[in-house]
Amino acid sequence: MPAQLNTLLATGVDPVRFIGHDTPEGYLGTDGRVYTLNGMSSINKWDDVAMTGLDEVFALADNTIFRFPSLDDIVKDEKSEKKGEVRGRSISLHTLESRCFVKVDDHLFELKDKLKLVDDLEGLGVRVFEGRRNRLGVVTDAGDAFVFDSKAAEPTLIELDVEEDVRLLGLGSEFDVVVTETKVMARGDSKHRIRASCS
Q1: Close Cβ partners of 76 (under 8 Å, ≥ 6 residues apart)
Q2: Are residues 91 and 145 in the same domain?
Q3: What residues does 171 pair with on adjacent strands?
């Protein structure tokens, strides 16, 4: 953990969200401003902010998504690019190594040149789980789990050996961990059925 982060937490700061890919580089404060661990803060206020592994920063304000090349650029309000508009009661940004997804209520979009609705999940209530190496997991309200593999545009359903709803999902670069009501299960290859590893 960076020394600045230890100092920050010791002062009683309560970040809404840490910003960074492998390690925190800043945070979104309760006042909506972006703060770096070096003490700089943004002029503008944001509803959500997330950073990819390529240091790109995506930010949401007034139902509009912006892209910045770096954390420094969002703090200085430089080089911003509008990427799309969204409307909903609950909007959140989810970034991976080089991908950005946007959850709008029960809809999931991938943001590339523009927002693209993930049709396979339309109409399903979803929770999003960010994984490693551009892998994203989704658990639906019906208890099904889906995975976007690193280059896949559409999600793949995880097939279980048990008839139980999925509660939680964890994604490594080459493995998945699924938690149901009574079991923890793992798989090492996304093309094979997941099997119980312990109960």
Answers
A1: none
A2: no
A3: 176
For the chain (199 residues), the mean pLDDT of every run of 10, in chain order, is 58 79 90 90 96 97 97 96 94 95 94 90 85 90 88 86 88 86 77 43
According to the model, what pLDDT value does residue 197 have? 41
Closest CA to 49 of 75, 12, 22, 13: 75
Letter for the amino acid at 1? M
Quote the tokens at residue 102: 């946007």
Residues 111, 192: one domain?
no
At residue 2, the pLDDT reads 58
Whole-model pTM: value is 0.85
Number of domains present in the structure of the chain:
2
Residues 59 and 146 occupy one common structural domain: no
- Cα–Cα nearest to 128, from 139, 141, 112, 115: 139
CB 89 within 8 A of CB 108: no
Other residues' Cβ atoms within 10 Å of the Cβ of residue 144: 18
| CB-count exposure of residue 101 (10 Å: 0-12, 13-18, 19+) | buried
